[in-house]
Fold this protein.
Amino acid sequence: MTTDYDKIAKEYQESKLQPWRTHIERYTLLSLLGTVQGLNTLDLACGEGYYTRILRRLGAAPISGIDLSKGMIDLAISQETKEPLGIRYRVGDARSIDFGEKSDLVFAAYLLNYASNYQELLSMCEAIARNLKPGGRFLTVNNNPDDPPSNFETGRKYGYSKRLQGSLEEGAPIHWNFHLPEGTVEVTNYYLSTATMEIAMRDSGLTDIHWHKPQVSPEGLRQCGESHWYEFQANPPITFFECTKR
Ligand SMILES: C[S@@+](CC[C@H](N)C(=O)[O-])C[C@H]1O[C@@H](n2cnc3c(N)ncnc32)[C@H](O)[C@@H]1O
């Protein structure tokens, strides 16, 4: 059931080129990020380093990227070799990492939605808290638990669709399909309610939780027109939040 990213590392990397990724996902994350100059940063579930490189170029240092998939980390390292930025990458499980050195910022794009129950989610949140300095910040984007299954096909217009397996209950698999020129690639994550996410944050010592809706970049509005993004914004498939280590 769990997605084997080693097998789809290249295709997943390609899905990052879909316009909604740039004009909404990346734009919203960067708007929320603020200044990262000199911040000791950890990118959990960094994949092939898409956001790790962006964070580094914005001045985050030192910076490390951790991912469970060797295939994804290999892609990240090959880009680091071609164009060295000083990023440290390593294969590791975000649920058990303990860096020793505490971070100012932990960033995680699409990690939490790989937890299929409260206990797994709690281990991720505890690891995030363990690796943050007091007052340090966690910023993340994940599948939006409040996106109704009746909306799951509307993403086709943007190049993706979602499929719920079974009924919408804690731990239910949600299959994301990215429709790429070479074919469709599927990744599976899990539904956990917003309430469960908030409880796990608080139980790990992460407070001041602020949820944010996706925003469309001025460039995205100019290129595609406001009406193009209507369905995405009416029922966002993804959600963003930030919180602080007590
Ligand atoms: C959807 S991809 C996102 C990659 C990257 N953050 C991005 O936005 O391009 C999800 C990533 O989470 C990683 N992942 C899933 N569970 C993990 C865990 N427990 N620890 C570390 N990485 C994990 C997968 O290997 C995969 O690379």
